[in-house]
SnoaL-like domain-containing protein (Lampropedia hyalina DSM 16112), 143 residues
Amino acid sequence: MTAPRLPELLACYATLAPTNLDALVQCYTPDARFRDPFHDVQGQAAIRAIFAHMFAASEQPRFVITEQQLAGATAFVTWRFHFGLRGHDYCIEGATRFGFAADGRVCCHRDYWDAAEELFQKLPLVGPPIAWLRRRFRATGTY
């Protein structure tokens, strides 16, 4: 087995731009699966389309890698995703589990982040009802 290409992959994410999406998807196997709170897709073209849409739908998106752990053919990476939307700046904190194929490329990409807390609750129209629901279901009392 070839060593996982984690440094190359993270370098692509650190410098991600619409002009280098092809370099990013080359870090993935042709049949790689990508899953996050909004998507569950397979294949390099579908993964590329997600990131192309990210650049079209948001302002100055960028990833900041905060921690990484590699164990065998699995990596776990924490990150901050900074972006603008309609003149407002946002930051989502999350984590990704990467599974690597025998050739060192990513075959499984699973993002973990709380869409309600990290995104929806910060939006003007849906934020207040989500905040109310969170308060409603929060445990009370002394712990």
Summary: Helices lie at 6-14, 21-25, 44-57, 115-118, 127-137. The first strand starts at residue 28 and ends at 35.
